[in-house]
Design goal:
This protein is mainly beta. It has a single domain (5-137), classed as Beta Barrel (Cathepsin D, subunit A, domain 1), CATH 2.40.70.10. It is 10% helix and 50% strand. The chain is built from three helices and ten strands. It has helices at residues 43-48, 108-111, 134-137, and strands at 5-7, 10-18, 25-32, 40-42, 58-64, 67-81, 84-94, 104-106, 114-119, 124-129. A six-stranded mixed β-barrel has the order 2-3-8-4-7-6. Strands 9-10 form a two-stranded antiparallel sheet. Strand 1 and strand 2 form a beta hairpin. The longest helix has 6 residues, at 43-48.
């Protein structure tokens, strides 16, 4: 059973994101956030992976407790997390505070694909894949 890592009261999932046009991947720790519509990766990490605003599908604006953040959406060829691989996965690219060890957020565009049982005390997470047509998995996000 996959486990999440607890740091400072937050639960983190390790995800694998590919470098642009390569068969190599970078492991990133993303905060699991059921209140976030999209998964987000810090812009500096996205740049390191070889993506840029030139790869943007469209602009992205996030309003949160820290204020408004403007960024962009990209699509990565695959996104691996908690034992599952999702093709053509959309990620919002925004400036995060990476000094705090937060590379980004694992949001509902990933989590909604599963029925999830989470034990916060042990960090255990069980994901059961829903039967969702492939065409519905990666709808354009607002």
């Amino acid at each position: 059973m996959p486990r999440l890592t607890e740091k400072g009261g937050l639960l983190f999932a390790t995800v694998s994101v590919p470098f642009k046009n390569q068969d190599t991947f970078e492991l990133l720790d993303l905060v699991v956030d059921t209140g976030a519509f999209l998964s987000i990766v810090d812009t500096s990490l996205v740049d390191y992976l070889g993506y840029s605003a030139a790869d943007a599908l469209k602009k992205s604006v996030l309003d949160g407790a820290a204020g408004r953040s403007e960024g962009y959406l990209i699509k990565v060829p695959n996104f691996k997390c908690l034992g599952f691989e999702i093709p053509d996965f959309q990620i919002a690219c925004h400036d995060m505070n990476t000094r705090l060890g937060v590379a980004g957020i694992l949001g509902m565009n990933f989590l909604k694909l599963f029925r999830i049982d989470l034990n916060y005390n042990t960090g255990e997470i069980y994901l059961m894949e829903k039967i969702i047509p492939a065409s519905a998995r990666n709808r354009n996000c607002p």
